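Structure in, sequence out. Go:
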């Protein structure tokens, strides 16, 4: 996405945005911010300042109100990311269950470090504080799917399947 591109949802998505906004009382359209940010991220894969400004305009709110929300939640990407964002839990329980070794293996397999994207644009690795699956660690999440009780072999299978 470049600065010369026009930021605008496709017609069907824009229709959905207006339906979402109408769920809330007049003057409370900011309540639609989270679902609309999810739609924006699904459309552009990440939330640039231009996208966040566009969302602010749709909701008739100040851009800073969008930035505050987008920067608070780790589920929103504020820089370009790969097709598959692998969020891995870095907290104690996952580490005690072998997380460090599993995540080191993931990084080695992909040839990237945390916060980086593979050269083919397929994978980004993102470290998160907790995925709330402490009894099933080590854990990572890709979109809405959790991958639990990870081993090096399971990581290889997951990456191979997603690489197809």
């Amino acid at each position: 996405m470049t600065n010369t591109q026009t930021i605008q949802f496709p017609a069907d998505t824009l229709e959905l945005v207006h339906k979402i906004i109408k769920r809330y009382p007049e003057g409370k359209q900011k309540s639609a911010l989270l679902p609309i940010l999810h739609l924006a991220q699904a459309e552009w894969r990440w939330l640039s300042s231009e996208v966040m400004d566009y969302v602010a305009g749709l909701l008739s709110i100040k851009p800073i109100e969008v930035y505050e929300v987008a920067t608070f939640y780790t589920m929103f990407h504020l820089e370009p990311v790969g097709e598959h964002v692998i969020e891995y839990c870095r907290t104690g329980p996952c580490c005690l269950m072998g997380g460090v070794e599993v995540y080191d293996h993931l990084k080695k397999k992909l040839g990237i470090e945390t916060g980086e994207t593979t050269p083919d644009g397929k994978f980004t690795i993102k470290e998160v504080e907790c995925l709330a699956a402490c009894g099933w660690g080590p854990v990572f999440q890709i979109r809405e799917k959790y991958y639990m009780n990870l081993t090096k072999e399971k990581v290889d299978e997951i990456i191979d399947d997603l690489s197809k």
